[in-house]
Amino acid sequence: MQNILNAWFVEGMIKATSDAWLKGWDERNGGNITMRLDEADITPFQAEFHAAPRYIALSQPMPELANTPFIVTGSGKFFRNVQLDPAANIGVVKVDNRGTGYHILWGLENEAVPTSELASHFQSHIVRIKTTGGKDRVIMHCHATNLIALTYVLENTTDVITRKLWEGSTECLVVFPDGVGILPWMVPGTDEIGTATAGEMTKHSLVLWPFHGVFGSGPTLDEAFGLIDTAEKSAEVLVKVISMGGMKQTISRDELIALGKRFGVTPLASALEL
Length: 274
Fold this sequence. Notes:
The chain has 274 residues and is α+β, with helices and mostly antiparallel strands. The protein has helices spanning 8-23, 39-42, 79-82, 86-89, 118-132, 145-153, 158-168, 172-175, 191-201, 221-243, 253-263, 269-272; strands at residues 32-36, 54-57, 69-73, 90-95, 101-107, 138-142, 180-182, 206-209, 213-218.
């Protein structure tokens, strides 16, 4: 009999949460990850589902996600503990046939519930499904240290943040040519910040929450993690450069254009024109 702890999506979540903890991105219960699954992913493990799955209503209907399963991190759970006890810290949920709530099929034991940012995740999933034709499956939120630091010293606009990150590391323009969206500071865990984040996710795979953290989207856990990791590495370089007195030279606009042409990506035009 197959064991759900050996399922690719459970093993993937264990690795992603452990790696994020080791990076220093997810202190205490900070951060959350959700990944959209297919019915075929979870069917082999039905024997391990809860006998009486708990049902939790969503704060607003999301019919676009009806009958969709997800693997999610738990509210108040520490990423560093997922590897020690996956069933207590993560879970598989499935949205009902009307999109008004979801059942907890596996995990999230001892009355645990999904992340408090679930509404933000689900709203962004809906947008990324439409934007990428269903390609994107992962939404990852974490407190990447240097990206947060930059929001205190750079102008908090998409074009400025994007351009500086592109200049901070050559690969950035290739990895996120669509740039980085940014919100005003908002109270987390609300439908309002979820709606605002989803609005930015129509244009960007990365969205910064100033003084708080970052949201990343991707087709796989590796892609979403790698997207944030790339931006965070550039942010670390920028923090050091700013601390050393600022840039004396950098990648030019023409060089950024040449980089986009070489790798077949179209950079965000407004960030190029700064």
